[in-house]
Amino acid sequence: MLAVVKETTGSGYVLKEVPTPEPKDGEVLIRVEAVGICGSDLPIFSGHRAVPLPFIPGHEFAGTIVSKGHHVEQYEVGDRVAPGLVIHCGECMPCRRGQESLCDRIVETGIHVDGAFAEYVTVPGKVLHPLPETLTFADGASIDPVASAYRPIKKAGIGSEDIVVVFGPGPIGIYAAQIARVEGARRTFVVGLSQDRERLNMVDSLGLEPVEAIPGTSLVDQIRDLTGGILPRVVVEATGNPAVYSTCLDVVDKGGKLVVAGIVHDLSTISFAQIVRREIIIEGSICYTWKEFGESLQLVADGRVQVQPLITHHLPLTDIGTGLQLLQEKKAVKVMLYPHGME
């Protein structure tokens, strides 16, 4: 099969033919019909995030089961499925508490074991969800980032009087804002920079409220001007930029909650005095549970969360280099790849 393989440390990858994997007991072999490029794939390709070599990345995907190992009873060959990336042990204390994404022995498809930037991939049957016929494979490949946005919003515990501010108009941020609206937020803002103007226009087209942070101007004052002086009870950080944390703390109201969803690779300096004096609650959020993935899929199937507007580019898998460049230059929101040809 054709696959995108990370063979060496440092920057780069190769497109090459590799053996098609065989499903083990409890696993299925999936023909990958659509796979999205995630922001967390970029540091893998640049060499800033270590992975076992040689390695096939890719974790946002959907496809069709073409074969299965023993002890997979719920699914059959030919089923359309959307897999989650979290493979949990089910036995450690976090798993027993229902915190699958904190599993002591967690394995993630496309992060720790070979993923879906390939024509075929094997995954355990326990991570699968049926993909309704009403959804495209690209829709199915979008459920992973939707679920990664769903978890932090559920952690926030949004009420009908709450104002929510999301930092970062990328896929996670825009999905988080849509889900905050579904959860009943009174108003939902998405903050970006001048270079994010096209993404902020997308935010506006989805019926959410974009905010372009103006250099040299207090973002707190900008938010207050828009809300009649009220600061948000909930702030979601979805940029992955640690320099944004201090601004998040400035913006959130006294007694409010900051939920950090962006993956951060660098250290940050924040004011713990501000956290103490203003009684700010900070929560982290990573990945999702099997249940949350299913609930996210239902939000998309019901039309309450829109994913197609965020897929700005559709490319064959062989054009992954173009897709990576578009994302690095912020000329794309979501790039969807097709290993077997375009949908």
Helix-strand sequence: EEEHEEEHEEEHHEHEHEHEHEHEHEHE
Low-confidence stretches: none
Structural class designation: alpha/beta
Number of strands: 17
**Major sheet size, sense and barrel closure:** 7 strands, mixed
The total count of helices amounts to 11
Tell me about this structure:
- This protein is α/β, with parallel strands linked by helices.
- β13, α8 and β14 form a beta-alpha-beta unit.
- It is globular.
- The protein contains eleven helices and 17 strands.
- 27% of the residues lie in helices and 24% in strands.
- α4 packs across α10.
- Strands 3, 4, 5, 8, 9, 16 and 17 form a seven-stranded mixed β-sheet that branches. It has a six-stranded parallel β-sheet with strand order 12-11-10-13-14-15, with helices on both faces. A two-stranded antiparallel sheet has the order 1-2.
- The protein has helices at 42-46, 93-96, 137-141, 143-156, 171-182, 197-205, 219-227, 245-251, 272-277, 290-301, 320-328; strands spanning 2-5, 14-17, 27-36, 60-68, 80-83, 86-87, 107-108, 120-124, 128-130, 163-167, 187-192, 209-212, 234-237, 257-260, 281-284, 311-316, 334-338.
